[in-house]
Amino acid sequence: MIRGLDTLRADFNVLQDRQQNLASNIANVNTSGYQQKELFQSAMDDVSVHNYENGPLNNQYNQLTGGITWQNEISGSRVDTSQGSLEKTGLSTDYAINGNAYFAVQNNSGQTIYTKNGNFTTNADNQLTTQDGYLVLNQNGEAIDADTTNPQFLVVSFNDDNSAVNLGDTYYSTTGGVTQVTNPDVMQGYLTSSNVSMTDAITQMMETTREFQSSQQVLSATNTTLDKAVNTLGKA
């Protein structure tokens, strides 16, 4: 019974992580350039099965065949890099990339990071920046004058989409390297919408809720059994 409580604790932790991730994705359904995060769930390593029924006094360790898994866990995550739809805004400082690629921007620490969110603005020097004030870079790695006609953005693709790392908001880095895209299809007056599907997210939320309910029922049954074992059998 105690093992059952430990298994349920791990299950509740997994479900909580899944629910928090879904809530984050849903909250960003209208955030331009947002890419949803997916979690991977797997069973933990097997533990050996044994008893102490060896020997003349049945008190020696006896390794049984095979093992058993008691718990599941969140084993990893990935950024879904699939393309969101393009939405027309008509604003001259809005840009969208038609394809699986990213704008290169320079954050306040001088680091080059990447985003699909082309909802740009201008700073005091009339340079294109993100809404957070990060400089948007051209193909020479320099700031872009906002008055430039048909600016030559530094656009890159990730060599390995599975290596994308979410830095927060709509900024990403990658551990797999990038490749500069030649002649990228950049559309002025458009934005790339979030790739979160509300239908899929709500379906997954309902599934997680049902799993919570099932685990709560098991917890209630386990608690009842423990109560009987302690308060009823213990008095016999």
TrEMBL record:
InterPro entries, per the entry: Flag_bb_rod_N (IPR001444), Flagellar_FlgE/F/G (IPR020013), Flg_bb/hook_C_dom (IPR010930), FlgE/F/G-like (IPR037925), LlgE_F_G-like_D1 (IPR053967)
- Any coiled-coil ranges, and where? none
Q: Flagellar hook protein FlgE/F/G-like D1 domain: which residues? A: 96-143
Keywords (A to Z) from UniProt:
Bacterial flagellum, Cell projection, Cilium, Flagellum
Q: Where does the record place the Flagellar basal-body/hook protein C-terminal domain?
A: 187-231
Pfam families, sorted: Flg_bb_rod (PF00460), Flg_bbr_C (PF06429), LlgE_F_G_D1 (PF22692)
> Where does it sit, as one GO cellular component term?
bacterial-type flagellum basal body
GO biological process, any: bacterial-type flagellum-dependent swarming motility
* Principal location listed in the UniProt entry: other
Compartments in which it is found: Bacterial flagellum basal body
Q: Where is the Flagellar basal body rod protein N-terminal domain?
A: 16-35
User: Which family does the entry's similarity section mention?
Assistant: Belongs to the flagella basal body rod proteins family.
The identity of this protein, by name, is Flagellar hook-basal body complex protein
- What species was this sequence derived from? Ligilactobacillus ubinensis
